[in-house]
Amino acid sequence: MLRDITLGQYYQADSVIHRLDPRTKLIMTFVYLISLFIFTDPYVYAAGLLFLVIALAMSRVPIKFMIKGLKPVWLIILLTSLMNIMFTDGEPLFQLWRFKVTAEGLQRAGFMAGRLILLVFGSNLMTLTTTPTRLTNALEALMKPLKFIHFPVHEIAMMMSIALRFIPLLVDETDKIMKAQLARGADFESGNLLKRTKAMVPVLVPLFISAFRRANDLAMAMEARCYHGGEGRTQMKPLKYKGRDYITFLLLVIYLALVVFLGHFLPGILG
């Protein structure tokens, strides 16, 4: 289960998506995620799925690796779908105890599940094709106008980058601690929910200690290297837009126009 967390991991490959400017990928991901919330029309989701499939094929990230990233959130998807099925008013199909299952509820549950899956895939694709360092540089560059209102742009970008770096490290640390506890006879599977929660205490305590130790080591390393924020700092590889980035922006505009047409104008034409 822990090994299935792909957020914060980087999949190295030589693809067009990997070579895009990280600012382009951030903007593309943000626009893609917003487009999934603007309309609830099935044609919009179909366009979003097609856009994601093309981007995934161009990134050369294995589909199995993307599907693996769904495993940590499958429970959220399941609960969201059940809530929509049970509590959406409409024409009842059948009844389960006091809950009525409606056609509208099934339709809404399908849309919500599809939206969540596309959200996870879209977010994971960006982190899998962008190193944390370049992602930090992109965040800092895009938030640069906020410096005029004295917003700590560099510090916020650095915090997000460190958080992304720590996710796979803490996952590996948790896996090692659980294996060590299992070797000592610990049982994380049997018993009721309260018993299994108590069994996780021997895992959480050393995990928090390890996390604080890593954070302290990182702070000492940054202080030893005279780190004092982003003022006056330069980049070894400055960000620069290239031809492929402008082509991507053009395709993104076309995608947005298609989404607006499918979600706003097409229902009126068909209706």
Q: What's a quick, concise take on this entry?
A:
This protein folds into two domains: 1-130 and 241-271, no CATH class; 132-239, no CATH class. The chain is built from eleven helices and two strands; from the N terminus they run αααααββαααααα. The protein has helices at residues 16-19, 22-38, 42-59, 63-68, 74-87, 103-128, 132-142, 153-183, 193-199, 201-224, 243-270, and strands at 92-96, 99-102.
Map the helices and strands.
Elements: H1 16-19, H2 22-38, H3 42-59, H4 63-68, H5 74-87, E1 92-96, E2 99-102, H6 103-128, H7 132-142, H8 153-183, H9 193-199, H10 201-224, H11 243-270
Antiparallel strand pairs: 1-2
Strand content: under 5%
Question: Count the strands?
Answer: 2
* Rg value: 23 Å
Backbone structural class? mainly alpha
